[in-house]
Structure formats: C-alpha cells, structure tokens
Amino acid sequence: MPVSPDPPLSVYIHFPWCVRKCPYCDFNSHALRGELPEKPYVDALLTDLGAELEHCGSRSIISVFIGGGTPSLITPEQIERVLQPLLPRLQADAEITLEANPGTLDSGRFAGYRDAGITRLSVGVQSFNDDCLRSIGRIHDARTAYAAVETALTSGFRRVNLDLMYALPGQTTDQARQDARIACELDPGHISHYQLTLEPGTAFFKTPPELPDQDETWAMQCECASAFAGSGYRHYEISALARPGHRCRHNLNYWLFGDYIGIGAGAHGKLTTPQAIVRTNKPRSPSHYIAAVAQRDWSQRELTAADAGFEFMLNALRLSQGFPQDLFETRTGQPFAAIGEVCGTAVASKLLEIDAHWCRPTPLGRRFLDDLQGLFLPSEKAAT
Questions:
Q1: What is the pTM of this model?
Q2: N- to C-terminal Cα distance for the chain?
C-alpha cells in the first residue's frame, strides 16, 4: 500500500491523572492517590518523545495537544520541560493546547502555562449549572467554571476552547439552552459541544443514570445549535464550533488523517512512511508505561488498505464540509474509486453527497453519523 509520505505532523502528550475519575469518562485516566509523580513521568515522556522523533526525519510539527486526565495538575515548569525538545521543530504558528479543569486552576498557573509556551487553553466546563455538574461528578461549580474561562480569555492565550456537554442526568432543554447562552456571552473563539454517552467500562455504564429521552436530547441539540449560530459560531465538525480563524488545528489534523506522535500512558500514534501507515500504542498503566519506555517496548502495527480507508472515512466524515476526493488517495494510498460502491449506497440513502471534487455528509448524514460511518466498516474478509 504505497502512500504519499509526510502529511502534517502533530504531537499528542498524555497526562493520565485527575483529582477524581468522572463517572462518564472512558479516557485513560486515574484518580490521584498520594503525591503526583511528576518528574519520573516527565522523564519517561522525554525518553518516549526522543525515540519517536528519530522516526520523523526533519519533519516540522504543526500542533501539540496536552491532554488527560487533567494536565492542569502538572506544574508549568514540567510542561515547559516536555515542550523544550519540540521547539526546534515547531512551525512558527504552531498551536500548542493544554486541557484544563476549572477546579485545578489558579491565577498564577494561567501565566505559568502561557510562559511555558501554551498558546491555546481548552477549559473543561461541561455545564454552568451546579446541579448538572454534581450529576456528572465534576469537582468544580458553575462560578469556578465561569471565572476560569474569563481568566483564560484575558491571560494572553491566542485561542481558548470551552467544553460543554448536554443530555446530562436530569438536565432540561432550558438548562442546556442556558449553558449555550452563557458560553456565547463569554465569547471564546471555539466551543466543543457534545452529548453525554454511556461508554463501556465507566461507572455510568455499570449503573446508568436517568438521561433525557431521544426527543428531548434532539431538542437540546437543535436549541443549542441555534444559539451558537445566532452568535456567529460555525459548526465545522460534528461536536465543534468556531469563529473564523479559531478552528482547532490539532483536531483537524486527526480528522483529515494526518500524522501524529502519541506520547504518554495509553497514547496512540500514527506515522506514514512510503511503504505503510503505522499505528503505535503505549501501555495504559503509568507504571507499566514508565518501565516500557525505558526498554522502547510498545506495540505497533501496519494498517491494511481496508483499515486505512475506514479510518480515513471514520474521521473525515465528522467534518461538515467533508473532504476533497484526492485527499483520500494522498492519505491512504488508494484511489477514491476503492470506496465508490459504498459511497454510492450512502448517496442513495441521502447520507452523503459527492460532486466532481468533494465528498461531504448531508444534514441527514450528520444527524445519523454512526450509521454513515458504519457503511465503511471493513468486512471480515477485507480486513484480513
């Protein structure tokens, strides 16, 4: 499967600890018990990063995303240590994002993260309603969330994202609309707005709370979308809205099947070579990760043509504008005709529209995105 090398390259860095594990969270995160092992973990991150960069030649980096867990538990000094080896490779306008929990921020840390090199802050608000926040186990209240976003917006970061959730336990459409209204009043450049889902392995999946029904959930989505649009936000991805010039470059690179190095416990990566697309996966346990990195011991696999085609479509169909057809060939090494039959089925079902150059989901396709993506799932035969 020959592919065109050197798509845009990003770096993801994972810090797995949080104050308390939220009952809905299925990310690789662990409630902190005892002292945070900052230095040994960052030492491992630097070893990991050095090994990964050896495979990247002289490629430059367009974005860095520091996620978790709760990266804002980590001191600015340690964040700066992690970023130092990347400085020679960063493009001049590289986007460097840090996820932050309002319950772990103080005024000094905002300045510290900015001075460490963070250019974009993503604040995990989830709701501005205290009852809703308690229902999903967040450690902050509405006042703290509001203050954190306000401070982020005035602390010198070039871009700020505000994370919101809807269809929370006991939430009403009015409460969801009010969250959207407050978010718009704060006026961040970017808003991530996504529905609470019950994921396997979470506390909520084991003991499900009572959630709004499908009709009310759809009403919340429509009411919030209207509020965002009325305030000038464009819904450019299924769960992401932005003002002009504020789209998340890092996530766009994921959605357009770019390359990225995955650093940290449980981090995934994707790297394109002239011969293959290679996926890497680091051990999930922080202690196992630290030991494995010392031995350069982690799993990796080459994607089959079928897997590459599916992964491309799984991501690119999230984008409202879709993607240029020739990008499919550039990023997967296959002609667009390789998925022509499935695309025809999706067009006939009014889930997809295709013109001479572009492929994009219809409004119906965006509403039933899981169904649209599922059409491209490789058959058992194709995956072998």
A1: 0.94
A2: 14
